[in-house]
Amino acid sequence: MYRNILVPIAFDADHKPNDAIALAQTLSAEGGRITLLHVMDEVPSYAMSYMPAGFRDETRVALARDLTEKAALLENAQGLVIEGHSGRTILEWAEEHDVDCIVIASHRPGISDFFLGSTAARVVRHAPCAVHVMR
Ligand code: ADP
User: Fold this and answer.
1) Number of CB atoms found within 10 A of residue 68's CB
2) Over the stretch 71-81, which tens digit does the pLDDT of each residue have?
3) What is the 3-state secondary structure (H, E, C) of the chain?
4) Distance from Cα 57 to the centre of ligand 1, integer Å
5) CA atoms within 13 A on the CB side of 106
6) What is the pTM of this model?
7) Distance separating alpha carbons of residues 83 and 81, to the nearest angstrom
8) How far, in Å, from the CA of 81 to the mean position of ligand 1?
9) For the segment 13-64, what is each residue's pLDDT rounded down to a tens digit?
10) Structural contact between residues 56 and 47, judged by C-beta atoms closer than 8 angstroms
11) Angle formed by the axes of helices 86-96 and 118-126, to 10°?
């Protein structure tokens, strides 16, 4: 059982986070904390100038709302959106917040030829804590 679990959540249409969230609940110790975290990849400044004003901020607010709603169904959980690079930023957040288990899907469903997607691979290789990979 873990006291501080991180569940990285991707918002691509193919990724279905419900199994990872349910597993995090099962693995959580009594009173344990669960964080649902999405990392918004940085957009190069030249590309930002082609986006409608406010688009990125609105996206961030909508994603944060979605994660907060998911977290509200769990005990002692929070939803967070931060900016960065998916693999690297998940690892940094885990280290800075004393996470003791990361629950992550191995890759998008249907890409079964790949053992691990690029984000999952980086997390497994460099995590400062236990990692539960869902296949
Ligand atoms: P694929 O390349 O097949 O999409 P990934 O390694 O990117 O595989 O995704 C596997 C898992 O990594 C996702 O289910 C999710 O848990 C996590 N993940 C991927 N991208 C992000 C992101 N931007 N923010 C948070 N978690 C992510």
Assistant:
1) 15
2) 999 999 999 99
3) CEEEEEEECCCCCCCCCHHHHHHHHHHEEEEEEEEEEEEEECCCHHHHCCCCCCHHHHHHHHHHHHHHHHHHCCCCEEEEEEEECHHHHHHHHHHHCCCCEEEEECCCCCCCCCCCCHHHHHHHHHCCCEEEEEC
4) 21
5) 11
6) 0.94
7) 7
8) 14
9) 777 889 999 999 999 999 999 999 999 998 888 888 888 888 899 999 999 9
10) no
11) 30
**Which residues contact residue 132 at a Cβ distance below 8 angstroms, ignoring those fewer than 6 apart?**
23, 27, 101, 102, 103, 104
Confirm or reject: Cβ of 87 under 6 Å from ligand 1.
no
Contact between residue 31 and residue 50 where contact means Cβ atoms under 8 Å apart: no
Domain segments of the chain as ranges: 9-54
CB distance 119 to ligand 1 below 6 Å = yes
Token code pair at residue 126: 């460099």
If you measure from the C-alpha of residue 54 to the centroid of ligand 1, how many angstroms do you get, rounded to a whole number? 25
Integer Cα distance of 46 and 44 in angstroms: 6
Determine the residue type at 14: D
* 126, 91 Cβ separation under 8 angstroms: yes
